[in-house]
Amino acid sequence: MGSAVKLKKMRISFEHITHRFTNESVLQDINLEIDRGEIVCIIGPSGSGKTTLLRIAAGLERVQNGRIMLNDLLLANSELHPPPEERSIGLVFQDHVLFPHKTVSENVGFGLRNVRNKERLHKIALGLESMRVVEVSDRYPQTLSGGQQQRVALVRALITEPGVMLLDEPFASVDVPLRKQLREDARKQLKANDTATLIVTHDPEEAMALADRVAVLVDGKLVQTGTPKELWHAPKHPFIAKTLSGLQTLRGKVQGPRLKTAFGDLSLSLINGRDKLRENDRAEIGIRPEKVSLAPSESPCFVRDIRFFGQKYVVFIQGDRDTLELHFEKEPSINIGEKVKLNLASAQAQLLSID
Ligand code: ADP
Ligand code: MG
Q1: Helix (H) / strand (E) containing 90
Q2: FRET pair for 189, CA 20 to 30 Å: which of 134, 244, 275, 307?
Q3: What is the CA radius of gyration of the chain?
Q4: Considering the entire predicted model, what is its pTM?
Q5: Distance (Å, rounded) from C-alpha 57 to C-alpha 54?
């Protein structure tokens, strides 16, 4: 393995990774490749296996089935299990543990113990500068804000120039305004280092903003991997439709040439993916909430609430059981409590699942 871990520019591949804890299947046949310089975000519901996947690559968990490759060399499989420190993989986890009794500089320099003093100090200064924490270099971790600690943890991981970086919710403890700046700084550094990076986040906006590609993990399966644009335009799973694509989902039943929903019917010809639909199928579709118009009408649906969200007005329509959120640029001329009919003709519907 010695030669593999010294290569700087790396591609990491997960091949057929399947993992269980006691009787519970946690990851099923995961195949994912992250190229050098590429940033891939994993997003998925809590408990879907995101952290486990990172722990397996880092060497904190043994590979049970499948293998992990660095470039074309085997890094780990069920028989080969090099320890974390021999993997040339940088790690930053949510509960980033900086050494409490070391200063920021000492923390960051830890991975450079074998580098000459002068060069080490130079690298530490450059690293801290690149993440804008040079002014806290002599302080101890507990005196820093959450955001500063995350920045230091990132510098510490980046400073040894690992070929691969694994980040598990690295910005979760940082407040929103600082978070955006932090992730932009992180992306810039990761790109500058040409690092293959896998970032777990539960924030869809963050995934869209950071990633070259997004991998969506649901119940231990990768349900879709694609560029933010691909996932936005053609989500293949209800979770993606609701979180990343900003679609509203609704259920209906196929009757003749139409899908009957609690909010009105729409022609099957408007549904992307309609070829899979058969008579009497129950299907879930996603629609663009800004493409639906409303008109007062006798109908089982009514306006439950109207709210102003800054860039848009959001109207909550109550059907018999479900609620639909529609978005409008201008204040809609409709009142709370009013019965309404929806025009779904330009909703840009996407088939998500068939029961
Ligand atoms: P995520 O990071 O997506 O929230 P995790 O990878 O932490 O998910 O966990 C996936 C599943 O595996 C969960 O059901 C979790 O309870 C379980 N799990 C995680 N680590 C262990 C462990 N060491 N032993 C047993 N079960 C675990
Ligand atoms: Mg996790």
Answers
A1: strand 89-93
A2: 244
A3: 24
A4: 0.86
A5: 5
Ligand 1 closest atom vs CA 48: 3
Nearest partner of 43 among 273, 249, 241, 247, judged by Cα: 241
The counts of H helices and E strands in the chain are 9, 21
92 neighbors 157 (Cβ within 8 angstroms): yes
In angstroms, the CA 91 to CA 110 distance is 14
Query: Which mutation among 17, 18, 21 tests ligand 1's pocket best, with the greatest number of atoms within 8 A of CB?
Result: 21
The residue nearest atom 7 of ligand 1, judged by CA position, is: 51
Could you report the per-residue pLDDT of 129-153, keeping only the tens digit for each?
A: 989 999 999 999 999 988 899 899 9
| Token pair recorded at residue 114 | 């074998």
Q: Would you state the structure tokens that stand for residue 76, as one six-digit string?
A: 């780990």
Residue 110 and residue 90: Cα distance in Å, rounded?
A: 13
**What amino acid occupies position 210?**
L
Instruction: List the shell of residues around ion ligand 2, using CB closer than 5 Å.
Output: 50-51
d(CA 277, CA 76): 43
Give the 3-state secondary structure of residue 92: strand
Interval 92-119: pLDDT, tens: 987 768 999 999 999 999 888 888 999 9
C-alpha of residue 310 to centroid of ligand 2, in Å: 32
Pocket test for ligand 1, best of 14, 18, 26, 48 (most atoms within 8 A of CB): 26
Which residues does ligand 1 sit against, CB inside 6 Å?
Answer: 21, 26, 44, 46-52
